[in-house]
Specification:
The protein has 613 residues and is of the alpha/beta class. It is built from 15 helices and 33 strands. The two termini are 43 Å apart. About 1% of the residues have low confidence. The protein binds ligand LQZAQKY5, molybdate ion and magnesium ion (MG). Catalyzes two steps in the biosynthesis of the molybdenum cofactor. In the first step, molybdopterin is adenylated. Subsequently, molybdate is inserted into adenylated molybdopterin and AMP is released.
Amino acid sequence: MSIKFGILTVSTTCSQHPEKDEAGPKLEKEILLEFSKSLVSYKKIVTDDLAAIIHELEFVTTNCVCDVLFTVGGTGFAPSDVTPEATKAVIDKEAPGLTYAMISKSLAVTDMAMLSRSVCGIKNQTVIINFPGSSKAAVECFRFIKSSILHAVALIKDSIREVETKHAEIQCNFDRNLSEESKVKIKVGESRIRKSPFPMLEVSDAKNIVFKTVSVIQDTELIPIEKAATRILAEDVIAPKPVPAFPASIKDGYAVRAEDGAGFRVVEYSTAAGDGLKHPALQRGQIVRISTGAPLPPGADAVVQVEDTTLIDVTDNGDEELMVEINVEPKVGQDIRQIGSDIEANTVVFEKQAAITPAYIGVLAMLGISKVKVIKRPTIGIISTGSELVSSKDTLRPGQIYDSNKVTLIALLSNYGYEAKDCGIANDTPNSLKAVLENSFDTCDFIISSGGVSMSEYDLVKQVLVEDFGAKIHFGRLNMKPGKPTVFATLTYREKSKIVFSLPGNPVSCCVTSLLFVLPALRYIENSKNYEEFPNVNVILEHSIVNRDLRPEYVRLKVYRDAQNQLIAKSTGNQISSRLNSMVDANALLCVPGNSSFETGTVKPVQLFTQIF
Ligand SMILES: Nc1nc2c(c(=O)[nH]1)N[C@H]1C(S)=C(S)[C@@H](COP(=O)(O)OP(=O)(O)OC[C@H]3O[C@@H](n4cnc5c(N)ncnc54)[C@H](O)[C@@H]3O)O[C@H]1N2
Ligand code: MOO
Ligand SMILES: [Mg+2]
């Protein structure tokens, strides 16, 4: 993150003779030495005048001229020293920790630090920090607080990436109680690898390795039915009560005694859905007006729909029916849902290992079941790696790009019902990778990272996994395009097993390998017995497809139905693995063997990973 600094020298003498200002220039030099990518965007000298200082502070903070503004001078006991008063008048929030740090560390240098009245605080998005006027003291104070500046600015600007990385580092160091550095050293010169040490595996072999390695989860949990869609039942569901629990009318009409047959009848009362049974049993010749879903009154054994009746008489005010003619011979049980006719009590409604669909949830609700026991899912964490990455909420510096993999992966998993946690972005340095991975292992069991797995000296993910976490790399290179450097690893962290997929950083490679390995692994872990691949369907190719690479290529296709209801497939355009647009409308993958082509009109099986709309 680049920071904009400001220096406001407060000195009546220097405002008249700027060449006498020593502290300002020395501080500037020190800032640029420490924050090489940052700049000092504001420099000014004002007199020791309360109004003049306030005016400058207001100007800088209102116009976001800088992120951190150091005032230099005017913090002592002299009558003219009013910088702290001006600062207090401007800031919204005080930052006494900064003041405390400066004073306590300065006391180790000189007792005179006792006389400092320095104030620090925040106004809008700017931190204001009062330094003493002597150049030595100003530079010293800067050194005392410089370690907090990056994080302070990131927090104020809500710079997600910087904050997450810092938190991960702090958390990691805190947990270990020591700032243990990564054991990995970046390879230089002749030690850089020029050939991958990992054998190139076929996709099918890699998948078998994944299925054999991931342990099948036995844990269960009780969750509210509202959250149960796509989850796997851990036990049979037995109906605690019948549905319906009372004989209910299927029609709007009249509850009758079938043996009374057709003819004129007295309408005793009316009953609607939701009404309880509060009336005595029907006697010969009596009927009850009834609505669909209402409980059948006692004594009634059939319902005659209103269309099969004629109104004969109403009350004087015309509101209530008195007499109706039943036009058809009713049959016993006609238009009645008997008790348990939808679901019988004490029967197995759903068997364990069923995947819960929305209608399952409705049936559970019908049975009065509000919680359901399901197979526990691993906690999933997503990491992006790359020093070039910035959250799309942040501002880009030259050479940086927005992180798209993390949000894509989280959304992709959510699409298939899996919740995943954002575990931040790691820089391509051993320490940052170690800290971010470690933080993810603290809270997650199934980690998906992207980037940093290919051949450069900054592709350090595998090394950090092995050297810092003792991971076993099950595979590190696959014969596929995109997705060649895909990594699958397992490790034990604080006595718990962790599964790690480190996917290639190219956005398409990351998506395709998620569909081919990550999702299958998650589904297999949860329900290995009923595991099924995404469906294969035959499609007609709208155009020829050529693969010039030696690796089998997983071409992204859009499958649609033509006017004759045939399934047609067309490519989603340029298939380069950086072009995420080739994924956006894709609903299928076609595997084209290395160095071969498929002709227009040929029928090929594709793997459908989402619906055909
Ligand atoms: N000498 C070789 N170089 C490369 C090989 C190889 O076999 N030999 N393989 C290539 C292939 S194939 C792929 S795929 C990539 C994979 O690289 P990494 O996994 O190491 O990923 P990075 O180098 O970190 O990044 C690659 C590319 O993707 C962009 N990226 C990374 N993360 C994100 C993200 N979260 N959001 C958006 N974009 C991201 C990154 O900026 C790079 O442009 O390696 C080839 N090289
Ligand atoms: O395998 Mo890389 O994933 O071609 O782009
Ligand atoms: Mg790389």
